[in-house]
Amino acid sequence: MRWNYAPVPAENVAALVTRLGVDPVVAELLLRVGHVEDGPAGQFLRPSLSALGDPFLLVNLGAAVDRLRRALLGREKIVVLGDYDVDGVSSTTLLVGILRRLGLDPRYVVPRRLHDGYGLSRSAIDRALEQGKPDLFIALDCGTNSHEEVAYLRTLDIDVIVIDHHRSKELPRLDAVLVNPHALSAEDDAAWHHLCTVGLVFKLVHGLLKRLRLENYPGAHDIRLKDYLDLVAMGTVADLVPLTGENRILARHGLHILETTQRPGLLALMDIAGIKRGQSVQPVDISFRLGPRINASGRLADAALSVDLLLSDSPEFCLAAARQLDAMNRERQDIEREITEQAERLVEERYASANSLVLFDESWHPGVVGIVAGRISRKYNRPCIVLGNEGDLAKGSGRGISGLNLVDLLTSCAPYLESWGGHPMAVGVSLRKGLLAEFRIKFEEVICAARGGAAKDPALEISAWLDGTQITEQLMEGLGEMHPYGQSNPEPVFGVSGLRLRQTPEIFKDQHFRFYAEDRRGRRISGVAWKFAHRLPPVGPPLEFAVELNWNYHNGRRSLQMELVDWRLEEAPALRQNSA
Predict the structure, then answer these.
(1) Sign of the C-alpha dihedral, residues 333, 88, 231, 481?
(2) Does 418 lie in the same domain as 561?
(3) Which of 574, 419, 70, 486 is nearest to 284 (CA)?
(4) How far apart are CA 391 and CA 433, in angstroms?
(5) Are 402 and 519 within one domain?
(6) Could you say which of 35, 179, 254, 500 would form a disulfide bridge with 41 (CB–CB 3.0 to 4.6 Å)?
(7) Mind giving me the DSSP string for 82-122?
(8) Which of 203, 68, 86 shows the shortest CA–CA distance to 141?
(9) What does the pLDDT average to over 472-484?
(10) Taking Cα atoms as reference points, which of 317, 204, 226, 197 lies closest to residue 269?
(11) Which helix H or strand E contains 478, and what residues bound it?
(12) Is residue 137 exposed (0-12), middle (13-18) or buried (19+ Cβ within 10 Å)?
């Protein structure tokens, strides 16, 4: 694997160190993510809730608030339909929870992936209306492109609000109040273009509470909106949106709320997922512990269980539901592991030299192929679409790589697709099985043109070079200001020189190993390497490690730990820039 390192100007680093009083390593990271000026850099390090913009600046948010206010005053019947992923589940939980606090009792429904398909489908709508016709139907994290479905609701004299962040394939013509900065934008609204749906719902309820508090609406002053940021952080992190601007503010504060949450459903889920109370919660905990369990019911069964869990005040129900989600997640992992192995064999045997990957098998479960697409894309450093069987259709998900917008690129493949949509890095796709071969050729052509040539080997981007003696708790405290890491603020991978192993690493579970590296002063630094037991570093010679730095929590104590990404024999400093 190539290690790429492009130094930032030393004078710029020194200037930020002087003006902000930060560690030089932190200054280099700030410059690397684009914060050159003092003001933006300072705001990035210390994001404040007071910096959130006026919610009423979003197009149509005022109209959505007016319609919700009318529903509250008239005690109208409301149905909320949210998508089945973490963003949809957290959005539904947030809106339903606030409306309950304000005196309404909205029904909620979550599409069943295998029965209803994706989003605001006619099947999901019919199921939502089984208990009677509402006055207001609210679609969350879906609906922007559901013209026929919204028109159907309007023929039933049901008002519709759509809160969504998915791209529109054409100029929206919904007979609904649509809040979606990607579909309906205004001047100077760039601050909200990267919000996922739960972020937009937060803006909606913020606007609603501002309006109701001016009118002294009963209960409006009692709601502490900050307490709902745990839900906002989960949806924001899980949906892979850039953690900059308002997303960074919401995620940073939301993660702190999550650490001390009193929500019984989250407490039960955190216990099942092995997140100890009082321990720092990081985006990785959402991405790999909480998020997959919330997603599991939507992938394999009915995601309403996850909403039930997050809304419940019953510790007994929450514990039972969390255990059920955990069992579903283990089943999902087994299915996903088998499909991943089959997909990797397919790549090696048929598509080793391709720029892009379109993989399909009749036996693959459409509910887990998105996870497989992510694994394959990361392993081979190529955009990847993995499709499962759904009747006459091949249906699944795609995952991209940095620098490519999958939604835009798939537009060039539109003649071969039944549907597609999502985000630049994650899309949903469906097409007729008979068009698979033609689509694969076209997708390869589009990706090849976008990447500018042949498939590229995976590369490791080094964020900064450290000597082993620089890895200290003081550095870790400084790096804490860079959290949370995510899209547009990736977790830094440090190149570390001046290390040696004095003893053979300890292999555990046949796949991983623990180790102690010694710096130039003889100090030992602990580390762990996941799925690296096949490639142990040698004992004795000077080494360079590519690592992520984190805290390890064990028996109530916190210790600094390196997480190994790659290693090599030490090189001369002059050879490190963009070295292979």
Answers:
(1) positive
(2) no
(3) 486
(4) 9
(5) no
(6) 35
(7) E-SSHHHHHHHHHHHHHHHHTT---EEE---HHHH-SSS-H
(8) 86
(9) 94
(10) 317
(11) helix 473-479
(12) buried
Give the separation between CA 198 and CA 122, rounded to whole angstroms: 23
Report which residue type is found at 59.
V
Contact 110, 298 (CB under 8 A): yes
Q: Which helix (H) or strand (E) holds 525?
A: strand 524-529
Q: Angle of helix 197-214 relative to helix 61-73, nearest 10 degrees?
A: 60
Nearest to 90 by CA among 225, 229, 195, 210: 229
In the numeric block, the tokens 């998020």 are attached to 291
List the Cα angle 74/184/486 in 5-degree steps. Answer: 100
Q: State pLDDT tens for residues 535-557.
A: 999 999 999 999 999 998 877 78
CB count within 10 Å of CB 364 equals: 24
Tokens 């052509």 belong to which residue? 445
CA neighbor of 489 nearest in space, from 44, 51, 192: 44
Residue 498 has pLDDT above 90, yes or no: yes
Looking at 224, 241, 257, the residue that finishes a domain is 224
DSSP assigned state of 220: G
Q: 451, 486, 503: which is the final residue of a domain?
A: 451
Domain limits for position 379: 351-451
Which amino acid type is present at position 567? W
Q: Is the peptide bond before 484 cis (omega within 30 degrees of 0)?
A: yes
Q: State the amino acid at position 54 in one-letter form.
A: D
Shared-domain flag, residues 494 and 563: yes
73 burial (CB, 10 Å; 0-12 / 13-18 / 19+) is exposed
How far apart, in whole angstroms, are the C-alpha atoms of residue 111 and residue 91? 14
Beta bridge partners of 552: 559
List Cα–Cα distances, 246 to 50, 200, 233, 545, in angstroms: 11, 11, 11, 34
pTM assigned to the model: 0.88
The helix (run of H) or strand (run of E) holding residue 79 is: strand 78-82
Length reported for the chain: 580
| DSSP assignments along 30-61, one per residue | HHHTT--SHHHHHHHHS--GGGPPPGGGSTTH
Counting the structural domains of the chain, the total is 3
Q: Which residues contact 52 (CB under 8 A, 6 or more apart)?
A: 206, 246, 249, 250
User: What is the per-residue pLDDT for 417?
Assistant: 95
Q: Which amino acid type is present at position 559?
A: S
pLDDT at 386: 97
139/125 Cα distance (integer angstroms)? 10
CATH at 161: 3.90.1640.30
332 within a domain of the structure (yes/no): no
Q: Examine the pLDDT at 193 and tell me if it is beyond 90.
A: no
Closest CA to 329 of 293, 300, 365, 354: 293
Tokens representing 279 are 């321990």
Residue 108, beta-bridge partner list: 80
Does residue 81 fall inside a structural domain? yes
Sorted by sequence, the CB contacts under 8 Å of residue 114 that are 6+ apart come out as: 366, 367
Given a contact cutoff of 8 angstroms between Cβ atoms, the answer to whether 250 and 233 are in contact is yes
Res 454: pLDDT: 52
Contacts of 22 (CB under 8 A, 6+ apart): 16, 30, 45, 478, 481
307 in any annotated domain: no
Is pLDDT at 573 greater than 70 in this prediction?
A: no
